[in-house]
Write a structure and sequence with these properties.
The chain is globular and about 50 Å long. By secondary structure, the chain is mainly beta. It has three helices and 19 strands. It has one domain (about 20-279): Jelly Rolls, CATH 2.60.120.200. Strands 1, 4, 5, 9, 15, 16, 17 and 19 form an eight-stranded antiparallel sheet that branches. Strands 2, 8, 10, 11, 12, 13, 14 and 18 form an eight-stranded antiparallel sheet that branches. A hairpin with a 7-residue loop joins strand 11 (about 140-145) and strand 12 (about 150-160). The chain binds 2-acetamido-2-deoxy-beta-D-glucopyranose (2 copies). InterPro entries: Beta-glucanase-like, ConA-like_dom_sf, Glycosyl_Hydrlase_16. One of its GO terms (biological process) is carbohydrate metabolic process. One of its GO terms (molecular function) is hydrolase activity, hydrolyzing O-glycosyl compounds.
Length: about 280
């Protein structure tokens, strides 16, 4: 009896002093050449608007829309005056083969500059375990509008199946003195069981408490425990969209035209790396 107590006490001692540290479990440093590595990535193709009335057609294995150069992945929106897949813009949207639950997710990137360009580094659930969007969740590590070059936002979507879903996040977060299209910056998302944190260049700018029921209160409650749906594996999505519902017409005007698009200052996003750390 005494011996058992001693063992329990000693285990507790080890547990309380052995701080868990993040270890790198996956990365793409984009140090290769050519298009994305097919073992790690899948291209999502098509031009049906992707639920947001987006104007681009996402291509697959097309170097002019996505290739590695100078140690970065370059995603480029091309203007296609004669059309491609029924659209006048092409871009890339790619997802990782692997998915993770909890951890630290980090991207170093330089963003586009131009009217109604919508770069995003985000995460979607591997399975619709709690139901269709957004019941099973969505995590937006970084979104930006190509004309607001000192603004990013981090968000989560959850709460129920559309239209009973909700979202929360940083909102438009302005960083004085920064031009995200000029220099590389580090975007970090830390996902723990009870809390999520979004950081820019190592400084936390937004925190979400997920130690609560994430149900919106509308429709059927898809959840049975705190923190759901953010207790399941999510994969990365990287893309640049063109126009769409991220640009409500009352605030941003009508969808961008080909003539306007020809004046985009920088229709590219360079991603130096994506890294995933877990404890
Ligand atoms: C890669 O480096 C070369 C040489 O410095 C430069 O001309 C080119 O613009 C760079 N490409 C990107 C995407 O930064
Ligand atoms: C999570 O919430 C429960 C109550 O719902 C509370 O007892 C617990 O301390 C919270 N955990 C953290 C880490 O905040």
């Amino acid at each position: 009896m005494k011996l058992i107590l001693l063992l329990v006490a000693s285990a507790a001692y080890i547990c309380s002093t052995g701080a868990q540290e993040y270890k790198l479990v996956w990365a793409d440093e984009f140090n290769g050449a050519g298009v994305l590595n097919d073992c790690e990535w899948k291209y999502e193709m098509g031009g049906d608007g992707w639920g947001n009335n987006e104007l681009e057609f996402y291509t697959s294995h097309r170097p002019e829309n996505g290739h590695q150069e100078n140690g970065s992945l370059v995603i480029r929106v091309n203007v296609e005056p004669s059309g491609y897949g029924g659209r006048q813009f092409t871009s890339v949207r790619a997802i990782t083969a692997k998915a993770w639950t909890y951890g630290k997710f980090e991207a170093r990137a330089r963003l586009p500059k131009g009217k109604q360009l919508w770069p995003a580094i985000w995460m979607m659930p591997q399975n619709s375990y709690y139901g269709i969007w957004a019941a099973s969740g969505e995590i937006d590590l970084m979104e930006n509008r190509g004309t607001q070059n000192n603004v990013i936002q981090g968000s989560i979507h959850y709460g129920g199946t559309w239209p009973n879903n909700q979202y929360s996040g940083s909102g438009e977060k302005e960083f004085a003195g920064i031009d995200f299209s000029r220099d590389f910056h580090t975007f970090t998302f830390e996902w723990e069981k009870t809390e999520m944190r979004w950081s820019l260049d190592g400084k936390v700018y937004h925190t979400e408490n997920i130690n609560k029921s994430m149900w919106s209160g509308k429709g059927v409650n898809p959840y049975t425990a705190n923190g759901q749906p953010f207790d399941r594996p999510f994969f990365f999505v990287i893309n640049i969209a063109v126009s769409g519902s991220f640009f409500p017409a009352d605030k941003y005007g009508p969808p961008v035209t080909v003539d306007e698009a020809k004046k985009w200052e920088k229709p590219t996003m360079e991603i130096d790396y994506l890294r995933v750390y877990q404890k």
